[in-house]
# Entry
Amino acid sequence: MIEVRSPEEIEEIRQAGRITHDVLIALSKKATPGTTTLALDAMAEGMIRKCKGRPAFKGYRGYPRTICTAVNDSVVHEIPVKSRVLREGDIVSFDVGVEYNGYYADAAVTVGIGAISALAAKLIDVTRDSLMAGIAQACAGNRVFDISHAVQSYVESYGFSVVRYFVGHGIGRALHEEPEIPNYGKPHQGARLQRGMILAIEPMVNAGSAGIKIMSDGWRAVTEDGSLSAHYEHTVVVTDKEPEIVT
Ligand code: MF3
Ligand code: CO
# Structure
């Protein structure tokens, strides 16, 4: 069952979303050549706790840190470590989840470090805009796969591939709630959306083929073909009009 949240609950999710947003902005600014992903993780945790939030990923299925990173051919879930130093030309995604007063928000961005290749810049733009195309479908009366289809068709029109192994999700009182939101599929399928549903929509897009593999730490996902990958995510509230982005 997909939960429908009250206006009071949505206000709590907005608070979690505001913190998530602020942390992502700070991470994007701090991500410069020579910075380690571990230092960025520490900054994010400090900010979240200062705002009376809790890092939603830390401890989730044993995940040890506050943020998930993903450099270049990493797709998602790279654990921040001191040995991962960002270099000019890298692209890195930051994925942040915040619990505030029992309510959750989840969002991700991908940024370039200094000057990046034209392909990397295009991949980032297409991934971000595919998320916006998906969000535009998150309206009361539409169905879940209208979102999926919009993301997939946008991405594939640029010759890139959507990752199928991971999906977006409902969110609210837990990080992951129903429904699952694949980034591919046929339109007009799946559960019907209603005002007050909260969705985390999160396309992961590979410059090459869609395949991924999971590394031996059990977390880090990388592209099978070694191509670049980007990730964007927003938490959105379904309304009768335009979807409300809270992150
Ligand atoms: N944003 C991701 C998701 O929604 C990150 C969660 S993975 C975690 O699935 F284990 F680190 F929490
Ligand atoms: Co998510």
In short: Residues 141 and 193 are 5 Å apart (CA to CA). The mean pLDDT is 98. The chain has four helices and 15 strands.
